[in-house]
Write a structure and sequence with these properties.
Blueprint: E1 13-18, E2 21-26, H1 27-30, E3 35-39, H2 46-64, E4 68-73, H3 77-87, E5 92-95, H4 100-104, E6 108-113, E7 116-121, E8 125-128, E9 134-138, H5 146-155
Parallel strand pairs: 3-4, 4-5
Antiparallel strand pairs: 1-2, 1-5, 3-8, 6-7, 8-9
Helix pairs in contact: 2-5
């Protein structure tokens, strides 16, 4: 997994949803100021819903701190549009079916479901500067209160 101080190559293309609109751009274009990128598995699943709900509730607070939020999953933009409306998500949701972000962050991990092993993105969060420099990494997201976890981490970083 990438570590603080390293720089991510964010030049890959993604599709995203924000404010009810779809957009295709490079991931780098989405990171305009200090940004938390939170990786989750799938819309409409228990722990992922708690993770995103925690972020949605705290989004105005993070915006006041000068921090943008981006959540990344394999879901389609169509799914993200419905999910954002249902969950009250005001931040960017990125559709990343090829796991480009997790591959860039060297965060693909072996997982197991029903006895089958496969590679998938780690449920992790990254604090990035606009140039892609990683300021901090949360290797294991607390799905129950991800926002509190991020508040604690952001308090340890120099001001944006």
């Amino acid at each position: 997994m990438i570590t603080p101080g390293q720089r991510l190559d964010l030049s890959f293309s993604v599709q995203s949803v924000r404010d009810g609109a779809r957009e295709e751009s490079s991931f780098a274009r989405l990171v305009r100021r200090r940004t938390v990128v939170s990786v989750y598995m799938r819309n409409n699943t228990g722990s992922c819903d708690r993770q995103i709900a925690s972020l949605a509730a705290a989004a105005p607070e993070f915006a006041t701190l000068g921090v943008d939020l981006i959540a990344v999953s394999r879901d389609t933009c169509a799914s993200h549009l419905k999910y954002a409306a249902k969950q009250g998500v005001t931040f960017t949701l990125v559709s990343d079916p090829e796991d480009a972000f997790s591959r860039a962050a060297d965060a693909m991990v072996e997982k197991s479901m029903y006895g089958k092993k496969y590679l998938g993105p780690a449920r992790a969060a990254y604090v990035l500067e606009p140039d892609g420099t990683v300021l901090a990494v949360i290797e294991k997201v607390d799905t129950a209160d991800h926002a509190a976890q991020l508040r604690t981490l952001l308090a340890t970083l120099p001001a944006a």
